[in-house]
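Project standup — Tuesday

K.O.: blocked on the structure for the chain from last sprint. Re-posting the sequence here as requested.
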Amino acid sequence: MSNETQLTDARGNRPSASAMTRIFNCPASYKLNAAETPETSAAAEEGRLLHRVMELAIQKFPEDIHEEMRADFDDVKSLLSDEQEQAFNTACWLVSRNVVDGFRAGDETGNVEFYEKRFWAASKLFSGQGDAVFIKDNGEATIVDYKFGRGEVEPAERNYQLAAMAVLVADNFDFVKSVRAMIIQPRALDKGKRITECVYTKDDVDAAREAINAACKEAIEAENPAQKCGYWCKYCPSSYRCKAAQEAISAQYKLAVATPNLTIGAHNARQMFERAQLVKKYCEDVLAAVKKYIAENPDAECGLALAPGAKRAKLGDAGRIFEAVEGVGITPEEFVSACEVGVAKLQTLYHAKRKAANEKQTKKASDLEVKELLESKGLLTYSQTAPTLKLLEGAQ
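H.V.: unblocked you, prediction finished:
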């Protein structure tokens, strides 16, 4: 039933589906990225943590999770902050309602599920690790990809990572006739975008396979693979030393210098926005690379040094602080007026008290309740930041 390749689960120095948008649009980025020193970040660590807790939870869900995974699940879940737990709960609810409940509702004989499993393409040119893959014995497959970031992501129908995963599923299970590809983004501010999905027919998969194999082959084998700048540069770790990026910045600089009174209109607004985003990212990456060099070579005589970071004061326990300062005559009322109440922490405390009285009280319901209570008393107000630019979906 499966014609899975014998390659190991490691990427094997081959492109991965997670970077397919960048590789498809800019084959040169593959070798450039491969030469970078792997680095981590708070966002990356958070993503790994949330993906791990989802992996453990979705296999049976917390209420009937396998006993051997219970301790693991509890340990990982205990590391989540309140906000992270809310994102986790939202993701669980979305995948349960839209995928798992229906998948497990009938006769499960012949149905299979995979979590964080790496699949290899029949061409052996690329691989991909699916967050969750569900395959029915009737030839219907579903791929679920969790995006826990706060920024907008490409919807499923334009997402090359999911296109690559659809090819991988079809390559490994030749009886699959259609692949449903789904992105779950629990932190999306627009609730209508917390799930995007599309369906790949066999013809769609065949077309994607041909295009992706060609891009991967060029990325791996071409002496001078194509370089191209675009929105896919946003997360590219090599933009600071990319020739195409440097040329685009040079062209932008020449335009700015030659046209001091440059007019922005419908004819060039998007192009100028995309170029400006690229210049901004390039500058940020160059500054980060220079900072890293100075940190690793503090004695380098290049006219630069690291200045100490700014100190920021942070108060500790509020009760103990009051005890420390009340001796000068500060009243509890005056002290409270100097304190800033954190909305998220207050909602968590409020929910804990409500749940103690009624164990069925949900976090969502108690959050709404305290919000309405404070709004009714004029104690919760809102401010709005300056508007930001964003690309419209489907616009060219």
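K.O.: great, moving the ticket to review. Residues 269-296 form the longest helix (28 residues). Confidence is low (pLDDT under 50) at residues 1-9.
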